[in-house]
Amino acid sequence: MTLTREQIAQRVARELKDGFYVNLGIGLPTLVANYVPEGIEVVFHSENGMLGVGPFPFAGDEDADLINAGKQTVTALKGASYFSSADSFAMIRGGHVDIAVLGALQVSQYGDLANWMIPGKMVKGMGGAMDLVAGAKRVIVAMEHSAKGEAKILADCTLPLTGKRVVHHIITDLAYFDVTDEGLVLRELASSVNLDEVKQQTAAPFKIALRS
User: Fold this and answer.
1) What is the mean pLDDT of the chain?
2) Do residues 45 and 91 touch, judged by C-beta distance below 8 A?
């Protein structure tokens, strides 16, 4: 059985450590805020100018003025702060973000990331992705393993790149990969997923070093 989007987010949340400053990209990564492990304190950063982003609000509790970078309504934890976009990007570019969790259209075997446009389709802009992959200490890609039958983990990206050799870990509905200087290393398989399924849906070579 492959992981749901919520389960992918839960697996990502296990990478968080007490005291980390974390940026969550648009889409699936925003779900990570709902699954912070008990006993640790994480400060979520949103590039539109907020530290201390909390879980999504319950229906009826939304504040239309309190949104994340994806224009979704969010909650604010005790001690949250608000500031300009310029200050927000100074935090990113200054290396103050411990982990950036991003979605992806494609990731290469060496951690090249393409996540901002498909040629010929209208795009709003790159957003903060290019700054995040350059400034964050670690970059985790959280995504479905394939899209419409096409692999998203490739030997080389074919779409315009957001950054070269910037991804450290890939967590999908099928597996967990580390990205090393020598290429991909498979560390975990999702429950009820076998190795052949991962090989069939991964268009890049990888080593196997499954955790016990």
Assistant:
1) 94
2) yes
For residue 156, which of 201, 105, 109 has the smallest C-alpha distance?
109
Answer whether residue 209 shows pLDDT above 90.
yes
Exactly one of 15, 47, 150, 182 is catalytic; name it: 47
β-sheet bridge partners, residue 114: 106
Longest dimension (CA), the chain: 50
- Whether 47 sits among the annotated catalytic residues: the reply is yes
Q: Which residue's entry shows tokens 């795009």?
A: 123
Please name the residues in contact with 172: beta carbons below 8 A apart, sequence gap of 6 or more: 3, 8, 142, 143, 144, 145, 152, 153, 190
Residues 29-79 have pLDDT tens digits of 999 998 999 999 999 999 999 999 988 899 999 999 999 888 899 999 999
